[in-house]
Every structure is written in C-alpha cells, then in structure tokens.
Known about the structure:
Layout lengths: L1 H26 L2 E16 L2 E14 L2 E9 L8 E7 L4 E3 L11 H22 L3 H36 L4 E15 L5 E11 L2 E6 L15 E7 L5 E3 H31 L4
Antiparallel strand pairs: 1-2, 1-4, 2-3, 4-5, 6-7, 6-9, 7-8, 9-10
Amino acid sequence: xxxxxxxxxxxxxxxxxxxVHGSRMYKCGITHAVVRECQPAVKQIGATQIPCxxxxxxxxxxxxxxxxxxxxxxxxxVGDTVDVLYNPxxxxxxxxxxxxxxxxxxPYLLIGFGAMICILLVLLEIGKHxxxxxxxxxxxxxxxxxxxxxxxxxxxAFIRPARRKKQMVNCRKVNGKQVDYNRRRGNNxxxxxxxxxxFYHNGEMVRIEGEIGGNGSKYRQIGxxxxxVINDETGEMYCLDDVASIKKATIFIIIFGIxxxxxxxxxxxxxxxx
Length: 274
C-alpha cells in the first residue's frame, strides 16, 4: 500500500511540476527566434527512434542575443522564424507546444488523479478498523468504477476521436507499413504484441509504435499497409487503423460498465440479487 501511496504522490508531483514549469515559461512570453543552423538528428522516445532536426536558434533578449540548440520533429531552413519560450533566468528554451499553457487542464487532472489515489488508500486503511465504513467504501468504489468505465470508454471511443477529427485541418495522411512489433509479457503468462509502423515524413524514414496491441495475428502482420496521420501543428503522429480498433475495444468497456451499474442499481434500489 505504501508503494501505491508513493505513486500517487509522484503523479501529483508531476502535475504540479508541469503547472509550475508552464507558468514560468509562459510568464517570459513567446519570443521570435531565427534559425541559424540546422542539422539532422535522432530523437529517442522509448523504443521508437524518430528522425528530427537539431536547430541552433538566435534569440533576442533584453541582455543581447543568445544562441541555443533544440531538437524538433519539423524540418527547418536557415533563416526561418520560430516561436519559442525562453527563460533567461535559468537559460532554458522550449517550444510552446511542449509546455503546458496556463489554460491547460492537464496538470490539474494529474494532480487530481494522484490525490484520488492517496485519498482512496487512506480510506482503505481506515476501513480496516470499521466494518460499516468498509462496507460503505466498497459500495462507493463499486459505483465509482462502473461510472468511471462508462465515462472513460465514452472519452476514448467518441470524444477523443471527435477532437482529432476537428484537428484534421492541420493534418495530412501518408502511407505506412507495419515493419515489426514489440512483445510484452501479459498478466496470464501470455504475450501482447504492439505493432511498429514505418513511413516517410519530410523525406526521412520514421518509426512509431501503435496505440493499441493484442495477442491476435493482426498485430504481428509484418508488411500490413496502414494509413498514418501527421498533425503538423502539434507534431502528433498516429495510425488511423488503430483509432478504429480502439473504438471497438472501448465500446465493450462501455457496455461492461453499463452492465455493472445496472446490477448495482437493481441490487441496492430494487432488492434484486439479495
């Protein structure tokens, strides 16, 4: 239990850091920098290697001109103007897309999720010393789980795809192919396979890992042709085929959540299953 409590505190800390870091960077304001040098580079994200550009920027400040290097997925030319966030106090530079904006709710969600983990663990500890409290807590968690499954499934199946659909004006589609897969051991001593896709982006070969995996042969189908969506505004890249698979999987989660909620309501309000 102590380990999970520490995890909850770590999640809260991550949210607080994102909020404080974003506030400090945006407090300095967006600066228009100029690209003075551009070289090809590679960015390592987990098991994925993404070709990128390492650019040297000329940043005007109140204390004079500063030169800083940073990596990005986009392709630049010498002389291009780039919007960056530069903090002269600690000499750090970030792209606005990589920093939590003041109106971004993401850090608050992390803080809330971490706090919820800690609170639940404390309540479980209290419940060990009171049967009535423990029974009430179990009932609350049962309803919370059912409602959480429903809302989580609705978000993944409908809200998230709808947001991505609105962003399609900034996106383009390219042809890709599954070239490999990552194998991970599951809880039942079986394996889960996550496909790895390869495609061309700005003249470079890029590899990304799929958003969904499983133990079916589809996820190990080397050479399978897919469609990759690239958001030039946010730098997001994902496989369009995975979106459909996620929607199908989350619909079952919604149905399961509705079933659990229905059983709980029938038991507690109509006396069924007693």
